[in-house]
Amino acid sequence: MLENTDFLTIGYYICEHIDRPEYLEIGSGGFISASDCLCTHEPQYALCHGWKPHGDDKTYIKQFPDIETYIKMSAEITELMGENRFFSDGRFLSREDALHFYKEYFDSEKYILISVCAEKEFREYLDDGFILDSVIGAVNTDETIGCDILGWDFYGFHSFLCNSLQKYISGVRFNSYGLIDNSYDETKQMAESIQGRGEPVDWLPVIIRKVKID
């Protein structure tokens, strides 16, 4: 159980739940990630109406019930971006906004709504533009589904899997989501062991939670 005094919820993502890519070399099963290097997050703002040059992508529009729903979703996500409540890597700032978009537009087995929780001591690993005012505290009604090791790089998270850093970690295990199946304390030690490897970021141990859909 997470304690509100110890952890921050640093963002919410609507992740596409896919089959685990073979190139990751971490076994078979499903896969999600808060890293947009490895996982598609919704909405894909660059494919939305009004965004050039990739907006109004015909294939993307087809995933919505009709053009009116797609246009409405596009307008809503553009407004959130303008208010710094949604970011280019697919991160929602607030639980309320994330739940709205999930239930209104992406409520299916294809997607999972997650929250990313980190200890307050790692706040310095995030850049100065990272807004946390409305996401302080972890929501304990959500289901913990694993851990991850992420590194913040200007506009989004890298995963330790981006550079296959799992090869340098002894005893790391993966669950049915492709997340770390070890305890948080073990994950914290793993993150420390790979500092200075891979992407030029500080590696941040996090807990991933599946948000309860009200």
Report on the structure:
This protein is of the alpha+beta class. The chain has one domain (7-210). The protein contains 4 helices and 8 strands. It has helices at 58-61, 67-82, 95-105, 184-193, and strands at residues 7-16, 18-19, 30-31, 41-42, 111-119, 143-152, 157-159, 204-210. Strands 4-1-5-8-6-7 form a 6-stranded antiparallel β-sheet. Strand 6 and strand 7 form a beta hairpin. The two termini are 20 Å apart.
Give the class from helix and strand content and strand pairing: alpha+beta
Q: Secondary-structure element sequence?
A: EEEEHHHEEEHE
Low-confidence runs of at least 5 consecutive residues: none
> What is the end-to-end distance?
20 Å
| Count of separate DSSP helical elements | 4
State the gist of this model:
The chain has helices spanning 58-61, 67-82, 95-105, 184-193, and strands spanning 7-16, 18-19, 30-31, 41-42, 111-119, 143-152, 157-159, 204-210.
Keywords:
two-stranded antiparallel sheet; 214 residues; single chain; alpha+beta
Record the SSE blueprint:
Elements: E1 7-16, E2 18-19, E3 30-31, E4 41-42, H1 58-61, H2 67-82, H3 95-105, E5 111-119, E6 143-152, E7 157-159, H4 184-193, E8 204-210
Antiparallel strand pairs: 1-4, 1-5, 2-3, 5-8, 6-7, 6-8
